[in-house]
Design a protein that fits this description.
This protein has 185 residues and is α+β, with helices and mostly antiparallel strands. The chain is built from 7 helices and 6 strands, in the order αβββαββαααβαα.
Length: 185
């Protein structure tokens, strides 16, 4: 009798774990496809990328907004002087975000009379784009390649959906977004 009870307890634990894992996966994909987050310039310090969260001067902020708006109108929007993007774009769009930041830094360097062909780092962004009187800059860790590669597998192709490549899960969320009114901004 004791072994039957142990088997039932194990099956109950497996069922609870499966429901929790499935719910987490559902929520993650919902958050990824329909949530949004603030985008900051992604700058390099040595081997890692960081989000430069220090407030920019109004001129630098306007330049960053125009650079971000130029190529990604459908996934990025400007709200109250802040650049907001879909979560999947923020999480899986490192190459694009870094490229946009590089364009931004080139334009910012030109506006300061500096060489626009040079590679710029977070410290250079601080020197050129932060109001005078700010002593130090703040950054946040941008998700690592390992994190992005791991989460990409759990997103069921969310980063490919803007090109029209939908998996069955992506089509389900597209339908669910239409039902709930969450499809477009």
């Amino acid at each position: 009798m004791k072994w039957k009870r142990n088997i039932l307890l194990c099956l109950l634990a497996i069922a609870i774990w499966a429901v929790a894992a499935g719910s987490s996966l559902f929520w993650f994909n919902w958050w990824l496809r329909f949530g949004s987050t603030r985008i900051y310039p992604v700058c390099r310090t040595s081997p890692v990328y960081l989000e430069f969260t220090t407030p920019l001067t109004p001129e630098a902020n306007a330049l960053f907004q125009s650079i971000m708006r130029r190529w990604t109108e459908k996934y990025v929007r400007i709200e109250e002087e802040k650049v907001i993007a879909k979560n999947w774009y923020w999480l899986f769009g490192e190459a694009e975000l870094v490229q946009r930041t590089n364009y931004f830094l080139e334009e910012l360097a030109k506006s300061h009379g500096l060489d626009s062909d040079r590679s710029y780092y977070c410290s250079d962004l601080f020197r050129m784009g932060v109001p005078v009187g700010v002593d130090d800059y703040t950054v946040e860790a941008y998700p690592s390649n390992f994190t992005r590669d791991t989460l990409e597998q759990l997103s069921f192709g969310a980063s490919s959906e803007r090109a029209g490549h939908f998996t069955a899960v992506g089509r389900f969320y597209q339908w669910l977004g239409q039902v709930t009114g969450q499809t477009e901004w």
